[in-house]
Design a protein that fits this description.
seven-stranded mixed beta sheet; Rossmann fold
């Protein structure tokens, strides 16, 4: 588990405030794919519970895991009845027979060694694995370019590259690429779930302040970057935070 993966706890309340939630259509997609009742779920890297609540409100008994105790503390404030486990995915005991194992904007932080055998071992036969993630970008290309230029002296990019090197133009993206190669999973599907919103420029910068690339900068530099970005933004901005969802079924 990298230091960058554990950088979020210091801004757990900010993360809860500014990170966008997940639309009901994502749960609809996952549960329709399952094709049978899902009663239990294990969540990898639950953070403050943005995706936890999406499935818990459907009556699923979610076990929310995260390696950062500060993030789980914020989750418990929001969802006091959800079971939480303070552990990295790699340290979880095998087994469990869950109907669903899922990761929301967190799978890329897990260790690739033995990842898929571990996931499969936690699922019941025919159980569903789901991973979802996506960047939060300004919808206006000119504004996006202006923000990138304002940030450039301090930070080349705030992206996390594809863990397996899949180029962005390839039809099937990671982790679908790895799932397709695994003999433990079948029926691999990739879908886009729309997530758009309007927010103030200050809220957009608040969102940026929860992204690991910014969190790794020295505090004084961060504040300088945020100020430069605010200077090029109008009062309100349109944000495209569409999600890419990958679904797969454990081979019975």
């Amino acid at each position: 588990m990298s230091g960058r993966a554990l950088s979020f706890g210091a801004v757990a309340e900010t993360y809860e405030r500014f990170r966008p939630g997940y639309p009901d259509s994502l749960a609809d997609l996952v549960l329709a794919y399952a094709g049978r009742p899902v009663r239990t779920a294990l969540e990898i890297g639950a953070g403050t519970g943005k995706a936890t609540r999406l499935f818990a409100q459907r009556g699923i008994a979610v076990t929310a895991t995260d390696p950062d105790e500060a993030m789980l503390a914020e989750l418990r404030k929001q969802l006091p009845t959800v079971e939480t486990v303070h552990a990295a995915f790699e340290d979880l005991p095998p087994g469990g027979g869950y109907g669903l194992v899922y990761a929301a904007a967190s799978l890329h932080w897990t260790n690739p060694d033995n990842r898929w055998p571990r996931v499969a071992a936690m699922l019941e036969p025919g159980g569903v694995f789901a991973s979802v993630g996506g960047r939060t970008l300004l919808a206006d290309p000119a504004l996006l370019a202006a923000v990138n230029a304002a940030r450039a002296p301090f930070l080349d990019s705030d992206e996390i590259p594809s863990p397996d090197g899949t180029p962005p133009e390839q039809a099937m993206q990671w982790p679908g690429t790895e799932l397709q190669q695994s003999d433990l999973f079948e029926d691999v599907q990739q879908s886009v779930v729309e997530r758009r919103s309007m927010m103030s420029a200050h809220d957009y910068v608040g969102l940026l302040s929860t992204i690991s690339a910014y969190l790794e900068l020295p505090a004084a530099t961060r504040e300088q970057v945020y100020s430069r970005i605010l200077d090029v933004l109008p009062e309100m901005v349109e944000v495209n935070a569409d999600l890419v969802a990958h679904l797969a079924r454990r081979v019975p």
